[in-house]
Specification:
Helix content is about 20%, strand content about 30%. The strands form seven sheets. Strands 2, 5, 7, 8, 9, 10, 11, 15 and 24 form a nine-stranded antiparallel beta sheet that branches. Strands 1, 3, 4, 6, 12, 13, 14 and 25 form an eight-stranded antiparallel beta sheet that branches. Strands 16-23 form a two-stranded antiparallel ribbon. The protein is an alpha+beta fold. About 25% of the residues are buried. Helix 5 packs antiparallel against helix 6. The longest helix is centred in the C-terminal third of the chain and has 34 residues. It has seven helices and 27 strands.
Length: about 500
């Protein structure tokens, strides 16, 4: 009987253990107000106001960045530190950039344990963290950061190690979920919306900058290049002499004495004349505005003549020109190569089987941004990938799907009411540039006419594009194989647009 009870207890214990393992280590859904749970930094520089607000179009709440051009800082201390060393750990959170992200951060800092006496109100940019993860975009920066701060066991110094190939930030205003999976075999995987975008190994020098494990040797900082070290591979030939007939003063160009003035040159005609159609403005005051002069225009007589004005013989290349003489280069007999300091053992080198992660004792958001409307939600730490996947599917996926459907409907409505989509606008911009190609000049007016008609009928964009391509191919064909210049009338019928080429 006792044996049966023991088995039953073991089964129950195993069941509870399994249930416990399926729970997140930490999950902040922001269903309730964050007041009292999250601590806003008391530092003077952080003037941004955090709000408990609904995501646009949803009943779901999140932590909102409410003002543009501000610094923000808020922190949540965990009940128990999360240990990263031996098991899989998943870091995950949602961000919605409701007003876009032109310049600013939307990342999270996973804070390591602080010194005794530290107060959450003191949270700021200098607060030490273990991992920084999430979107950052400004200027040339457009990446989903993953930064590990790791302690060098030889020096005791913490070094920032940046993932070399982070994914880019999605460029829209939809909800997105960012996931970092840290594996006990030193692998880290970065997912955006559940799709793997980057994979790396913590101990690979190819994946992190700088590498977690320093190089075994370093250049000797005390080694100096000898004064007689010659790095010149080539030198001027010391025995070469300038040839006697080398004239360094000969000009590059000389007057072409054999040139003759073209027949029909108009010596007495200026290149520009007063515009005969210009008239002095009625309100022109000679005393205040000065003497009025008609604007100049190109002399039409010069357009049909070889030239106007005083004719001068043109210049031509001087066959005697040689320029400055330089001795030819020869191999340097004293060349020793490019000097480098000798390598010495690196005093900071250490060996490592796996990163010595500091625990996560708190979660902090410390950002500067030019945009408001950034909404954080469902911040999660789990020791099981399935838990993170489950939370992602239940919390993020329905919102994302709804936002995508709404976006499609808005784009369709905009296309019906406003005419052209962004893609169509780009197509027509390209077609206008095509119409400016010189060999299409005889047909430019008619092509532009067709394009303008197409802009009022977005449903025929592809037909317009195909029609212009037909024109280009036909013109090229006739240019290559002969034939009369084509006449290019156009017609717009009820179902499509085409350009009819007559032979």
């Amino acid at each position: 009987m006792m044996g049966g009870r023991a088995v039953l207890l073991l089964v129950i214990s195993a069941l509870f253990a399994q249930i416990g393992a399926s729970d997140p280590l930490f999950h902040e859904s922001f269903n309730e107000s964050f007041d009292g749970s999250w601590i806003v930094s008391g530092k003077e520089e952080y003037k941004g106001v955090w709000k408990h607000a609904k995501s646009d179009g949803h009943e779901d709440y999140g932590l909102l960045v409410s003002e543009p051009a501000r610094k923000y800082a808020i922190i949540k201390e965990l009940d128990h530190p999360v240990i990263l060393k031996d098991e899989t750990v998943v870091l995950q959170f949602e961000v919605r950039l409701q007003n876009g992200l032109e310049c600013g951060g939307a990342y999270i800092k996973y804070i390591r344990p602080q010194a005794t006496g530290w107060n959450a109100k003191d949270f700021d940019n200098d607060t030490p963290y273990t991992i920084m993860f999430g979107p950052d975009k400004c200027g040339s920066t457009n990446k989903v950061h993953f930064i590990l701060k790791h302690k060098n066991p030889k020096t005791g110094k913490y070094v920032e190690h940046h993932l070399k190939s982070p994914p880019s930030v999605p460029y829209d205003k939809l909800s997105h979920v960012y996931t970092a999976i840290l594996k006990p075999d030193n692998e880290v995987r970065i997912l955006v919306d559940g799709v793997e975008k980057s994979k790396a190994n913590f101990l690979s020098a190819d994946d992190f900058e700088p590498a977690l494990i320093p190089s075994k040797t370093i250049p000797d900082p005390d080694d100096k290049k000898p004064e007689d070290w010659d790095e010149r591979a080539k030198i001027p030939d010391p025995v070469a002499v300038k040839p006697d007939d080398w004239d360094e003063d000969a000009p590059m160009e000389i007057v072409d004495e054999e040139a003759t003035k073209p027949e029909g040159w108009l010596d007495d005609e200026p290149e520009e004349i007063d515009d005969p159609e210009a008239a002095k403005p009625e309100d022109w005051d000679d005393e205040e505005d000065g003497e009025w002069e008609a604007p100049k225009m190109d002399n039409p007589k010069c357009e049909v003549a070889p030239g106007c004005g005083e004719w001068k013989k043109p210049m031509k290349d001087n066959p005697a020109y040689k320029g400055k003489w330089h001795a030819p280069l020869i191999d340097n007999p004293n060349y020793k190569g490019i000097w480098k300091p000798q390598e010495i053992p690196n005093p900071e080198y250490f060996e490592l089987d796996k990163p010595d992660f500091d625990p996560i004792a708190a979660i902090g958001i410390e950002i500067w941004t030019m945009q408001d409307g950034i909404l954080f939600d469902n911040i999660l730490i789990a020791d099981n990938e399935k838990v993170a996947t489950s939370v992602r599917e239940k919390t993020w996926k329905p919102k994302f799907d709804a936002e995508k459907e709404k976006q499609k409907a808005e784009e369709a409505a905009a296309g019906a009411s406003e005419g052209l989509s962004e893609i169509q606008k780009k197509i027509f911009d390209i077609l206008y540039k095509v119409a400016d190609i010189p060999f299409l000049e005889p047909y430019k007016t008619k092509i532009i006419d067709v394009i303008e008609k197409g802009e009022t009928q977005p449903n025929i964009t592809i037909s317009i594009l195909a029609s212009v391509i037909v024109v280009i191919v036909t013109v090229l064909f006739r240019a290559l194989f002969g034939g009369k210049k084509p006449v290019v009338p156009y017609s717009l019928d009820t179902c499509h647009c085409c350009i009819l080429l007559k032979t």
